[in-house]
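One thing: could you explain this record?
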Amino acid sequence: MSEHDVMHWPNAIEAYAAAPEPHSELMWLSTTEERGREWWLRRAALTDRMAHGLTPGYTASRSNALDLASRLMAIDGAVVGCNPRAYVRQQYALWAATNR
């Protein structure tokens, strides 16, 4: 997927295929002081993964995943008519393609 492929809406398995282990991601989130867009994107993505059941041993509620996804959309000023969690998956996949 290219950086400009904003029409692609990956499912959770596609979006998080190359995501780091949950423990590693939690460590990054807890030690990163700057809470800019990347921090919120990665937090929303990890929570979405947990709520989707893709992180054995780690769980999150669907409402928590939805709240964080909605917050990311607000940060981005996104005005798209989609499920906020789908937006997180799309944005994470685009970010991961250029940052991993």
